[in-house]
What we know:
The protein is mainly alpha-helical.
Amino acid sequence: MEMIKATRDELLRTRAELTIAQEGKQILEKKKEALLSQFLAMVRQYKGRREELLADLKVLKDFIALTRARDGSITLTSLALATSQDITLKITRDTIMGTKVFHAQHPHVQRDLLSRGYNPASTSSRIEACAKIAERLLDKMLDIAHLEHNIKTVGREMRSLNTKINALEENIIPALRAKKRYIEDVLEQSEREEIFRLKMIKRAQESKSEETTPTPLKA
């Protein structure tokens, strides 16, 4: 165990460290509350959009299975390659209580019947339905991609804050309080001993003074 210097300078230093630790804990708790508010808002937004996305995904899987069975996998794959498109994302960065997040904007992915790179007259309605649902699904995936990333980022930061707050609350602050009490007790005991020593010295001096005082002679 580290030896504690029971001095007034050490007591002042310990009190300052305790104040800093307590204020730091309050700041971290306020940051955590602000992050939690933003985190819950993002989760609510993400949850609603994700449910819509999963519903579209189920429909698309059913349509793809039907189209593969009726039109063949080769036809479906070749048309999927023919309808590929480049998508440019506009990324902007932001911070939430010092935590870096980003927002992504993208152009509308869904296209009309004549803009997909194949002749609609030579394809079935099933192919067109698959393309339409897939593009709608991609739109929704791009809409929530930044939300999912930001939720994970803020969640990691909140876990880190919890670790720091717990360390302050359970280890650092109690240790500083115990150290402060120990130094105060030692200094108080030393002060009592010093007062007692001074009283003893004073009594000894008074006794010596009485012994050396000459007795007046009787006339």
